[in-house]
Amino acid sequence: MSRIPLPYNPKVMDLFRNPKNLGKMDDATVVAVAGNPACGDMITFYLKINDQEVIEKASFESYGCAANIATSSIVTEMIKGMTLEAAWKDITWKKVTEEIGGLPSVKFHCGVLAVGALKRAIRQYYAQRGVEAPAWLSKEHTFEEKQALEEEELARTLSKRMKPEAER
To answer: How many domains does the chain have?
Structure first.
């Protein structure tokens, strides 16, 4: 089996080599995780949100491939200064993919996962406060959130199957 390098564009490679906003944020208002290390992609998003519900700062930690790091990096750049409502409505995996100049089709899930982590963080922001979510926040999970949940469930299922019988 040969391993042919994926055709990443220069912007993806630059964000992979020089990610923006990489690292833990100690004063984050909310922290959300998406992915599962068993499947190879994991993202933690940190958001600092002010009283007007504007994202003042965003950072991330990632365990994954170049596309995972690049999409997480670009999402943190795209959302700075946005209200939670604008980020929820305007940031989609397709916009993220366009913003980084495209991805190989086998790596689209990285953009989906990054947006899933963002939407989880926004949903979690309201849950942590114990307040009713605003009307613009859908009751149902978004496409990106559903995909993140499916990836995590698949990873859990696979890890259970790979454990010896005695450990199950």
So the answer is: 1
